[in-house]
Amino acid sequence: MKSNKQYVLAAALAAAFSPAAVAAADTNLDPIVVTATRQAMRVSDLMADVTVIDREMIEQAGQTSIEQLLSQQPGIQYTANGGPGANSGIFIRGAAPKQSIVLIDGQRFGSATTGDATFSRIPLSQIERIEILRGPASSLYGADAVGGVIQIFTKKGQGAPRLNASTGYGSHGTTDSSVGFSGSNALVSYSLQAGHYATDGVSAIHNPRAASYNPDRDGYRNSSLAGNLAIRPVDGHEIGANFLLSDGTSRYDSGPSTPGQKKDIKNHQDVSNQSLWSRNRLTKNWTSTLRVGRSTDKSTQARDGVDTGTIETTQDQYVWQHDLKLSSGSALLAAEYLRQSVSGTTDYAVDERTIRSLLAGWTVGVDDHQLQFNLRRDDNSQFGGKSTGSATYGYQMSTAWRAHLSYGTAFRAPTFNELYFPNTFGALFAGNPNLKPEKSRNAETGLIWESGQRRFSAIYFHNKVSDMIVGWPLKNVSKATLEGVSLGYSGHAGAWSGGVSVDLQRPRDDDTDKHLARRADRQMFSHLSRTFGDWRLGGEWQLVGQRYDDAANRVKLGGYGLVNLFAEYRLQKDWVFFARGNNIFDKYYETVNNYGVPGANAFFGIRYAPR
Predict the structure, then answer these.
(1) Neighbours of 552 (CB within 10 A)
(2) Which residues have CB under 8 Å from 268's CB, separation 6+?
(3) C-alpha pair distances (Å), 44 with each of 49, 128, 496
(4) Backbone phi, psi, residue 126, to 5°
(5) Which residues are within 8 A (CB) of 111 and not within 5 positions of it... i.e. 6 or more apart?
(6) How many helices and strands (H and E) does the chain possess?
(7) Cα-atom radius of gyration of the chain, to the nearest Å?
(8) Please, is 565 exposed, middle or buried when counting C-beta atoms within 10 Å of its C-beta (0-12, 13-18, 19+)?
(9) How confident is the model over 554-610, as pLDDT tens digits?
(10) pLDDT at residue 257 is higher than 90
(11) Does the domain at residues 2-608 carry the CATH identifier 2.40.170.20?
C-alpha cells in the first residue's frame, strides 16, 4: 500500500505544479472517434474508457517506437525482446497481447499463428491518429477483444494539395525519413506517403551469461508506403481504397559468433493492410458501408544469408454495416465474414478457418441518461458458436461531470500455433486441437470531469478471465482476475500543456495468486510543455513498478523511471526543427529478462509540414 501511495503522490504533485491545472482553459476541442461504438461519436458523449493520440503527439514522439508511445497511455504496458524492430507486446489493463485486437483503418491486423500484432513494423510516419478502447469489446469486434482495441488510422488527404517531408538523425546511427503529398476537394481526397527507418541498434540480449548472448549490434531496417483515395461522385456517397505496405528486417542474437560461423540471424517481415469501401447514404436516416479488406503478415528467418523458414498468415475480411437513425437513438446492424489462412514451410494439420458474424447495437439518450447495448454472434469453423454482449448506462450529473456503469463479456480464440503447431520439438510443445476459447466477464465504473480543455477521469474495472490457455502441453485450466484503477488528468491553458496518469492494477492468477508475467501493478506517466514564441519545450516522466518475467514469479524485473525531453523550433511558417532525448539519465531496465534496451539516446531532425 505504501508503494501505491508513492505513485499517487507523484501524480498529484505533477498535476498540482502544472500551470494547466489551475489556469483558465481555452475553447474545448472535442474529437470524433469511431472505435468505441463503430459509429462516429464525440469523445464527450462516450460511455467508455477511450484515448485519442493525435498527429501532434505522434510528431512529438520523435524516435520513440509505437510500442513506447502506446505505453505512455493509461492502462497500457509493453515488452520488447531487444531494441527497435524486435518482437514486442502490448498489455491493455493487464490482458496479454493476444487478448487485444489491433485494427488498421478498420481492418483486423496481426498474425493468426502467434495471435500478436507486429507493432514494430508499423511506422509512426504513416499514422494520422490512434484510438485506444479499453475494456472488453467482443460484442463489437469479435474474438480476442478481452483487454481492448487499438485502432490505427493512416494519413488521409485534407485541404489544398501539399507536400510534407521529414528527416532526422540520432544515436546508434538512427535515421528516419518520410515524404508524401496529400489534398482534397469536393470530389476527391488523396494521400501517398513513403518512409524509411534504419538503426544500428543495440545487442538484443544484454546479459553475457545468457546462452544466446552475442555482443554485436542488432540493427533494424524498415521501408513503408501508404496511400488513401476517396471519391465522392454525389453528395452522401463515397467509394475509396487505402493500403499500407511495410518491409522490415531485424537482427537478433542466437549465441556468440566464431571465426567459422558469424551467426548472422535475421528476421525479414513483410506486413500489408489494404481495403476497398463504399459508404452510401441510402436515406436521410440510413447509411450503408460495405468494406472488403486483406491483411498479411509474412515472416522469414535467415541464418548467415540462408533462409531457414517462412510463415505467412492472411486475413480476408468482409463487412457490411448499417447505421440507422431512429426516433429514439441510433441503431447498428452489421454482418462480417473473416477468413484466416496460414502458409509457409511449417506444416499445420489445419491451415484455414472462417468466422461468420452478426452484430447489433442500440444507443439512446433521454435527458441526462444514456444507454448503449451491443450483441454479437460469432460462428467459427474450428470451435463453433460464441455469443457476447455488453450494456452501459451513463448519467450526466452536471455540465462538467458524468459517470457510467458497464458490463460486458468477451472471448479469445486459440491461435493456429496453439491448436495445430506440429510435433516438431516433441509432443510436449505441439498444439492441442481440443482447446476452447478463453472467456471473460468485465464490470466497470467510471467518473469523468471535463471543462474546456481540461479533463479528469477515474476508471475502476474488474475483469474475470476463465479457461485460460496455459502449460505444456496446452490446456484450458487457468483463471485470472484483472482488476485495477486508472486515474488521469490532462489540460491546456494558454502556452502550457500537461497531463498525468496513474494505473494501480492487480493482474493475478486465481489458482496461485501469483502475478501474471511481465505486468506491473503500478505505473505513472506525466508530461508538461510550454510554448515560448517559436519555441516549444517539454518533458516526460514515466515510472513503472517491478514485475515478474515468469508465471512462477521466480525471475523479478526491477521497476524503473525514465525522463525524456523534447524541443521544437519553428524556423518558418511551415518548417520545424525538432530534437528529442529519451531516457536522458541512461537508466538501465528490462521489459523481458536478459534483453537489452537502447539506454540514453537522442534524435534531431527537421520537418516540412504546410499549415
Answers:
(1) 11
(2) 247, 248, 249, 299, 300, 301, 302
(3) 11, 21, 22
(4) -95, 0
(5) 117, 118, 297, 299, 311, 313, 415
(6) 5, 33
(7) 24
(8) middle
(9) 999 999 999 999 999 999 889 999 999 999 999 999 999 999 899 999 999 999 988
(10) no
(11) yes
